[in-house]
Amino acid sequence: MYPVEEDGLLHPGKGGNRRRFNDAQIQSLESMFEAQTRPELRVKQQLAKNLGLQPRQVAIWFQNKRARSKSKQIEHDYRKLKMSYDALNSKLQTLKQEHESLLLQLQSLRKLTEETGDKETDEEGTSLGTEEKPNCTHQTSSPEFVLPQTNRPEAETGVLNIIDTGEGSFSSIGEKCEFETDGFFHNSCCSSQWWEF
DNA sequence: TTGTGTTTTATTGCCTCC
DNA sequence: GGAGGCAATAAAACACAA
What we know:
This protein is an all-alpha fold. It is built from five helices and no strands. Helix 2 crosses helix 3. It is rod-shaped, with a radius of gyration of 36 Å. The termini are far apart. The structure holds a DNA duplex.
């Protein structure tokens, strides 16, 4: 036993000699903690008697043990949360890349349709004239490639709407990819493989 | 050996519950 | 109001690199 004062506590500054509990004591305390993290007073008193400790020491041990256990649990929860955040974040980066790639592909497609459209009108020898400019209400992220609104397939409008949303609402892409487009966008929302020139 | 960081035991002060 | 719990902190004991 260590030198203790009347209050059952060690007072190193007053000549007491604090010691760490021995292995057997720790083992008993640990196994009791596994059974009960907050044992009753009687249990703590009995345990103290068995281990040759003061009841107050046992009470303090349980208190400190609960604090250690809690901080370990918090660390564990934090690691778990961080792992799932990292996984989600990397998925987001992949989706962003795909989004960028799809944007580029869409631009190429527009360019192509504009070029072929111009050729057709040249061959016919007609032009729309200044009064009959197409209704260009859609401002996309690449304003230089604007398609006429008229006769635009619904699906394409859907795609443009997605693009119009910008980064802030990027998460909506998953939902908006649901529509079908005469087979054009089948299974395409999360893959850029559909467009291979 | 010693300086430094970590762990463990103990204290203090505040809060809640009965 | 006393008992017990918790958070914050002190300080001793320990581990370990330089």
